[in-house]
């Protein structure tokens, strides 16, 4: 929602066949947390034209620690669909090269924090055998990361426009694209948009708290909550803190349990 222009701007570069010194070029999407970097990358990754253009596609969540061995294995699994064990990194990279050799591939490295060039140099070594036109999309909060990864294209993502932000909030708070049927709530909705800084993640979180609630007093109460003003030195969005406080007790307990798992850990929901 509201990212169609960004998608079109990047699509041409993603599918373009422009001359490039390297067979694989890096495209970084840079922006603050909650702004929609991963959402935009998914829009590109799942587009039918992109699926037809690339022979292989792989999506890997990187998170804060770039472990070359684990990320390389995740790329191999995504490309082959197989979970194989290798005695060392060299053997893994040989196998990965065989799968990628002369293939035009798209790799998404989501949520990258690494600023160590030597790690990136090691990770990308098996990727360089790809066919011309291969692409790596990196999502990151840091322009420094984009530089370390030799990004040919750096796309800085901005917050949503007021119109798109209000529409997104309406979809999650009212299940409607606008406030035409609820003029009394529109001013409060605009206040929420301002409090959320037009960040998609924050807008969705607060919208879900109010979902189905058409009571203006409840909207105003949330808008004037003291939580918006709490500063605890963390980068947790106030909107996410609000959504946690509004969870029923049994879900708060479940949330606390899930928080024990490292970021991006896969676990069986049962």
From TrEMBL:
Database matches in SUPFAM superfamilies: P-loop containing nucleoside triphosphate hydrolases
The entry's keywords: Leucine-rich repeat, Plant defense
Gene Ontology MF terms: ADP binding
The protein, known as: NB-ARC domain-containing protein
Organism: Lactuca saligna (Willowleaf lettuce)
Family matches, as InterPro entries: Apaf_helical, NB-ARC, P-loop_NTPase
Residue span, NB-ARC domain: 4-175
Keyword DNA damage: no
Top-rank lineage group of the source organism: Eukaryota
A Pfam family assignment: NB-ARC
TM region(s), chain numbering: none
Gene Ontology biological process terms, A to Z: defense response
């Amino acid at each position: 929602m509201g990212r169609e222009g960004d998608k079109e701007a990047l699509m041409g570069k993603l599918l373009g066949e422009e001359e490039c010194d390297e067979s694989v070029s890096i495209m970084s999407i840079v922006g603050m947390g909650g702004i929609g970097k991963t959402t935009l990358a998914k829009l590109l990754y799942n587009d039918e034209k992109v699926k037809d253009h690339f022979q292989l596609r792989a999506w890997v969540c990187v998170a804060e620690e770039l472990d070359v061995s684990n990320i390389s294995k995740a790329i191999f699994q995504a490309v082959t669909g197989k979970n194989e064990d290798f005695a060392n990194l060299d053997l893994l990279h040989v196998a990965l090269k065989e799968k990628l050799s002369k293939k035009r591939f798209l790799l998404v490295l989501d949520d990258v924090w690494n600023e160590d060039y030597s790690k990136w140099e090691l990770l990308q070594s098996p990727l360089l055998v790809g066919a011309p036109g291969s692409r790596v999309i990196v999502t990151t909060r840091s322009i420094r990361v984009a530089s370390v990864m030799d990004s040919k294209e750096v796309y800085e993502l901005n917050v949503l426009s007021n119109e798109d932000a209000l529409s997104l909030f309406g979809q999650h708070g009212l299940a409607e694209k606008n406030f035409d049927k609820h003029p009394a709530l529109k001013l409060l909705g605009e206040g929420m948009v301002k409090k959320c800084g037009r960040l998609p993640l924050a807008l969705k979180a607060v919208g879900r708290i109010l979902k189905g609630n058409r009571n203006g007093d409840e909207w105003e109460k949330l808008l004037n909550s003291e939580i918006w003003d709490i500063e605890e030195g963390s980068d947790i969005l106030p909107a996410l803190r609000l959504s946690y406080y509004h969870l029923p007790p049994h879900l708060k307990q479940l949330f606390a349990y899930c928080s024990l798992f490292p970021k991006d850990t896969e676990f069986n929901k049962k």
